[in-house]
Amino acid sequence: MKFFLSTALAATACAHTIFQRASINGADQGLLVGVRSPDSNNPIQDVTSANIACNTGFHQPVSSKVINVPAGSKVGAGWGHVIGGAQIPNDPDNPIASSHHGPISAYLAKVDNAATTGTSGLKWFKISEDGLTNSNNQWAVDRMIAAGGWNYFTIPTCIAPGDYLLRVELIALHSAYTSGGAQFYVLSLSFSPSPTRIYDIASPC
């Protein structure tokens, strides 16, 4: 089965983040390998925009790598303040400002070709959601920061063979007290297990 991963998350102007690497069952695939990441770490705040699907303004050249990801694998999404991680030495906002609390979710959409498909009209279904833990008042973003910029989810074992887009969405809620205040950052990742294949990109396709 083939998968394409796109990531969306939310942050503020001076403390944004970019999804820029993936790990498969603990193996880091490398910076921008199989990932289409935007050059800008600015959030998307218009939820009616087509860019909410996979972002826009890809870093060039866009990786054409397809990562092998078997169904049932533990997939990690690696975030950094800018491409490469820290923006300055000892960057306090890497991977993201600690004030940017919010959930992280992952979605799949079945496609004909994960490497070339667009995102218009796709039927997304959620495979993972990490939100607020009431026992310690901790959000998914808090756990991602504590894990050094990584959040993890599992590809379902029941997924049918074929190509998919995999989209990860992180939403920062610190400004969500006003309409349009929630901040989304979106990326995509491509990878493919045997017989599944997944492809990454980080902007709207």
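Second entry:
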Amino acid sequence: MLSSTSLLLSLLPLALSNPLAPRNNEPMQFELIAARSTTPIHLQAINANGQAFYIGKETATYCPLVPESECPPGKLTVFSASGGTASLHTAVPGGQQIFVAPNGKLSYTEAHSGYIPPGSALETFTTMPSTMEGTPGSFFFEGLGGGNFLACPTDKVGSENGPFPYKIFVDVPALSDEDVPSGCKDDCLEFAALVAPYEGGAAAWQYT
């Protein structure tokens, strides 16, 4: 099994310049960065697209405001976490909740809809702030009997785009070969999820 602690320690020379710190239980906003050295996903951003999360796929957003200059930037995928739950840092009324589906897929709710598949987990997300100035914090999921995060290739290594993009799952007991894009769980890469602090207002009106 991959050691998340080892991955974090290996990143000390690449430490983030603005550490995430506790703020009296207020929600923390951050981007997520994958850490798995010597692989294509190392230090790549995790982006929201199509009610799922990917490495190597652009963030997908929408904003109905006119003029367009009134819209949030909509370029980054920013998370907000507090009290064991996580959501996307949006302006849309009702927000967009992050959850793990029964098959382990890291997911988020559609805007204006609170629907979550039965058996999904909304809680047991943990954000561990940096404990040392200049080092990254980390993000975990501890529900559904799950383990580490997985990045699963959506294409074959020899294709035009290589294995990119990678779709994000949690290694829960119910995850099967049929659930991952390649049809084989062994193609997936375990990784540690690092937090890169975000300061500012909503990062997007809504994610699509």
